[in-house]
Amino acid sequence: MDSAPAAGPRLIHIGYHKTGTTWLQRTLFVPENGYVQLLDHREIFETLVRPYPLAFDPEEVAARVAGPLAQVPVGCVPMLSSEILSGNPFFGARDCLLCAERLKICFPRARILITIREQLAAIVSTYMQYLRRAGTLSPQDFFDARVEPGYGAFDHRHFQYDRLVAEYRRLFGAGNVLVVANEALAADPMAVATQVAEFSGIAGPRHVSRARVGASAPEAAVGALRVLNLLRSGPTSTATLVDLGAAGHWLHRGTSKLFQLPPLRRYAAGRRPVLEVVRRRYAGAFAESNQRLLEMIGPTPGLSRYEGVSLTGSDTHFAPDPEGQGASRAATTLNSSGA
Which pLDDT value is given to residue 312? Predict the structure, then answer.
């Protein structure tokens, strides 16, 4: 269809995965802070992601959000937030562009929030999430991505953020896309909350909780979790021996918690088997992408920890965007290494 529905969310947060999305959805994007999520995670999947490409109908999307949109209180920002809109990282995020195009067709005047995270940490957390979803592959096999032709697998290029950021800037306009680093969110959630509020056109919240939400299991638990995943089914399971149902899921959750308690917590702290694999495999893989991202979006809080980026001064100070495009930028000087 050529015509696009005019009404819809003012703000759309697409992820990435493992970038503080759960905290944002549960703590920041709530009515008390001036946000109303029109659809939940599953509804976004069923409405915008799952439909077969040749049967996708923007009018059906408009009808689905019309009811919740009519209930949004005056002064609140109608929005969508789901990391699945950035693609499924377990299978190479092959659907990321499809989601971007659908969002543009359905909600052409929306503003886009993209949250990112230093790539090695994000990839480690992605693998731990794969285990949480009942995966059994070792880190080496998961990242090797050996698959039959026609099937998807993990692809580290999904974490070369400049590619997807550039696409959203092309579709929605550079001034309508805000990139926020997870590292800035962890360091100063109130500053990020204020930045997102300004970008969304509302007053910032007076207070936000710093409590962590949705933390991954310690890497030291990988071996135990892989064995337990043989006893339960899930969306990434491929080698279930016996499905214990709810008991299998409770065993997995309990083991994750056990490794976070003394004395296993001290044992777990010094063991990073997944990070070791990720470092060996992807060292140097993101420097050029991060430099392109820096050139694209300008100095941004949190980017100092990203490969290929160096800085002068603190990168955690927020100041108004000098170009007046609605986003805040860091008042600091960042330089690309090697430039």
Answer: 57
Outline where DSSP puts E strands in the chain.
Answer: 11-13, 35-37, 77-81, 111-116, 177-181, 309-312, 318-320, 328-330, 333-336
The pLDDT of residue 319 is above 50: no
Alpha-carbon distance of 231 to 249, in angstroms, equals 9
Residue 13: Cβ within 10 Å count: 28
DSSP string for residues in 234-268: -TT-S--SS--THHHHHHHHHHHHHTTSTTHHHHH
Q: Would you say the pTM of this structure is higher than 0.85?
A: yes
CA distance linking residue 303 with residue 255, whole number of Å: 34
Query: Which pLDDT value is given to residue 237?
Result: 83
**In angstroms, how far is CA 167 from the centroid of its own chain?**
16
Instruction: Give the Cα separation of 248 and 303 in Å (integer).
Output: 39
User: 105-145: per-residue pLDDT in tens?
Assistant: 999 999 999 999 999 999 999 999 999 999 999 999 999 97
**Rounded Cα distance, 216 and 256, in Å:** 8
Evaluate the omega torsion of the peptide bond into residue 263 and state whether it is cis, within 30 degrees of 0: yes
Structure tokens at 301: 């809080």
